[in-house]
Design a protein that fits this description.
By secondary structure, the protein is of the alpha/beta class. It is 45% helix and 15% strand. Bound molecules: 2-phosphoglycolic acid. 2-phosphoglycolic acid binds next to strand 8.
């Protein structure tokens, strides 16, 4: 079965809730019926914008899924400043990013924590977008492959095959995030194929064929068509370009340029 592409906009710590509403409305005008039929789309605003964005999506019937950028692995408790998966579920969040490299690097998130989040997201009936990716030093030292296999293996420990089949993995080389440097389509394809092969080893071939794998790292309307034509790339996780309705729509419309 063909995998439906998923184009996700990771807004990071940008846009207050007024700005968020404006961007969603602009985006909805920029997208055609064909666009929303051809690809799944998710947007991942900051937590403080979620309720406002959800209200606009619902009241205007905009076929974009709501996403979050992170969550805590516990359902509730004394975790000052954290957000529970159940709170996100209540807001009709569909996708939750976990293990983004910025969270790993700046907030010390480990594979074990990412794994706990993946399970918690499933438990709350949402879909994880689990990110993995190597640094430039790791790539240059020939450690990319081992690092990616380790992140995928440890991130998915104890996760069931049918869950993995329904989830999303984002390959984001750290050296390409927010730098304007996109991995070549061949490099991106090579690592996305490695992620799929790893899942084939850990589970089975039908699970590997079902999981959606995104590429992320400076994706732009100009680079999206070639990236998306690769056999193991099923979507993109887009940061900077998702803050402009025009650019995000341009990425979503990659097939018009193919
Ligand atoms: P970028 O971010 O598109 O700005 O490189 C991608 C990401 O971090 O998800």
């Amino acid at each position: 079965m063909a995998r439906k592409p998923l184009m996700s906009g990771n807004w990071k710590m940008n846009l207050n809730h007024y700005e968020a509403i404006q961007l969603v409305q602009k985006l909805s005008y920029a997208l055609s019926k064909d666009d929303v039929e051809a690809v799944d789309i998710s947007i991942h605003p900051p937590f403080t914008d979620l309720r406002s964005v959800q209200t606009v999506l619902e009241s205007e019937n905009i076929p974009i899924s709501l996403g979050a950028q992170n969550c805590h692995a516990e359902e509730k408790g004394a975790f000052t400043g954290e957000i529970s998966p159940l709170m996100l579920e209540k807001l009709y969040v569909t996708y939750v990013i976990c293990g983004h490299s910025e969270r790993r690097q700046m907030f010390g998130e480990t594979n074990a924590e990412v794994n706990a989040k993946v399970k918690a997201i499933f438990k709350a009936n949402m879909i994880p977008i689990m990110a993995c990716g190597e640094t430039l030093e790791q790539r240059e030292a020939g450690q990319m492959e081992a690092h990616i296999v380790e992140q995928v293996t440890e991130g998915l420990a104890g996760v069931k095959a049918d869950q993995v089949a329904s989830m999303v993995i984002a390959y984001e080389p750290i050296w390409a995030i927010g730098t304007g440097v996109t991995a070549t389509a061949e490099d991106a394809q090579e690592v996305c194929a490695l992620v799929r092969a790893t899942i084939g080893e850990l589970y089975d071939s039908s699970t590997a064929e079902s999981v959606r794998i995104q590429y992320g790292g400076s994706v732009k309307p100009s680079s999206a068509p070639e990236l998306m034509s690769q056999p193991d790339i099923d979507g993109a996780l887009i940061g900077g370009a998702s803050l402009s309705a025009e650019d995000f729509a341009g990425c979503i419309q990659y097939r018009l340029a193919q």
